[in-house]
Design a protein that fits this description.
binds iron/sulfur cluster; 44 residues; little secondary structure
């Protein structure tokens, strides 16, 4: 379960975020490309 204390600092302000449990499956990027993008290094 996502933990707001582990959110990546690049996450946009607000209640939606990516935390450090992300395993880079990129399902969210495929499903919501206008809201989510891959990190610069591609690790989350
Ligand atoms: S890439 Fe996958 S694991 Fe990471 S936040 Fe998106 S859906 Fe979740």
């Amino acid at each position: 379960m996502p933990n707001k204390n582990d959110r990546w600092p690049e996450s946009a302000p607000g209640k939606w975020y990516v935390d450090q449990s992300c395993d880079a499956c990129f399902l969210c990027v495929d499903e919501a490309p206008r809201n989510v993008r891959e990190s610069a290094e591609g690790e989350y």
